[in-house]
């Protein structure tokens, strides 16, 4: 009984460790870059209807949009309000964010 409980706790701790290792940077960036202030903490409760939901979107698509808005290639709609926020994002950071957002439910 005790051994079984230990195994379950150890497994839970291990899975949590792995999950956070995979998404820690993206999650931290999402908070530190204030993405949540427009797109919502859960990335699907945006503050205005014209601000897109991001959670669960394809990573490849998100990455391209992030780079295009950053590089001024995407200027449609409300993209201008986001441009200054992502202006200093590196390609690696953009990928971390895209992977993190794609992994959200
Ligand atoms: C000031 C508000 C604001 C902030 C802060 C902001 N965004 Fe946005 N974001 C927008 C708006 C508005 C759009 C839609 C642009 C348009 O109308 O085409 C958008 C679009 C996007 C898109 C494209 C989505 C799609 O479906 O094409 C992605 C990805 C994205 N934001 C990610 C982020 C990330 C990651 C951050 C933080 C680094 C961030 N945004 C910060 C307002 C914001």
TrEMBL record:
Residues 1-21 form the signal peptide. Residues 21-105 form the Cytochrome c domain. InterPro entries: Cyt_c-like_dom (IPR009056), Cyt_c-like_dom_sf (IPR036909), Cytochrome_c_Oxidase_Subunit (IPR050597). Keywords: Electron transport, Heme, Iron, Metal-binding, Signal, Transport. The keyword Cytoplasm does not apply. Transmembrane segments: none annotated. SUPFAM superfamilies: Cytochrome c. The keyword Electron transport applies. Pfam families: Cytochrom_C (PF00034). This is Cytochrome c. The lineage of its organism: Bacteria, Pseudomonadati, Pseudomonadota, Gammaproteobacteria, Thiotrichales.
């Amino acid at each position: 009984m005790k051994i079984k409980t230990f195994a379950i706790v150890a497994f839970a701790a291990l899975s949590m460790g792995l999950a956070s290792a995979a998404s820690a940077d993206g999650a931290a960036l999402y908070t530190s870059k204030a993405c949540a202030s427009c797109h919502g903490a859960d990335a699907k409760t945006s503050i205005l209807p014209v601000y897109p939901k991001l959670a669960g979107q394809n990573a490849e698509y998100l990455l391209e949009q992030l780079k295009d808005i950053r590089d001024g290639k995407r200027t449609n709609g409300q993209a201008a309000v986001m441009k200054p926020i992502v202006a200093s994002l590196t390609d690696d950071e953009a990928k971390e964010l895209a992977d993190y957002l794609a992994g959200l439910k």
